[in-house]
Design brief:
single chain; alpha/beta; Oxidized Rhodanese, domain 1; 5-stranded parallel β-sheet; 4-stranded parallel β-sheet
Amino acid sequence: MMSSTIVSTEQLAAQLGRPDWVVVDCRFTLTDPAAGQRAYAAGHIPGARYAHLDDDLSSPITPQSGRHPLPDRAALCARLGEWGIGAETQVVVYDDSFGSMAVRLWWLLRGLGHAKVALLDGGLPKWTREKRPLSDALPTVVPQHFPCPDEPAWGVDAATVEAIRLAPGHRLIDARPEQRYSGEREPIDSVAGHIPGAVNWVFEENLDLDGTYLPAAELRDNFLGILNGVAPENVVHTCGSGVTACHNILAMEIAGLPGSKLYSGSWSEWIRDPQRPVATGDVA
């Protein structure tokens, strides 16, 4: 079995403990960066490693960057190998926030050419509701060699966004909550609003009431309406710092609309340059 989008709790439970499957806990809280690691120590899916958004899945912030710059390629590949992930490993990522953090690692791995990575559908909340096992033990890990490409497919930069944001045949999709997109409220970044030309599709719209992704056909209908004839490969996703936007990329993959891209710097990088335009209101 190989999955490159999502796996169910039932599927993971049936494969748990296999040496060629590696589970990674990606719980993280923006307002308390140590909270995820504390939660992991208190109890996690047996065998899971822990990935820290700031320390493992990002590089240090610079004056020009957003809040979660892309990680150093070689450092991430080394860390993946330390977690026991090799070329043939099936990776399953999860969190406790509707997949909003774990999708960052899903996207990074896909960009490194690793197709065998999937999000646990419903995450830890669904796993625990079903009374499946948890452990506070650190996993026993056999390090592997993770092959590292010279040029990962890690999205587009601000210059590309500037070039396509109003161009016919392209679409820029913002995954943030409506109030942040409109500029009515901005609890995190120093400037409120959105990139002019972006439409708003809040990532939670991809979810059913139980926190799992909607059926593929429903996701497809939703995104075809948003794209309005734009080809998936001409779609760029953005959010606050290049994390939750990956949720929309995964949703499009599930929907059979692959090929969309991430502006990894997202809003928090865009506003670093005061010459870049900002829009407010007009929620699309």
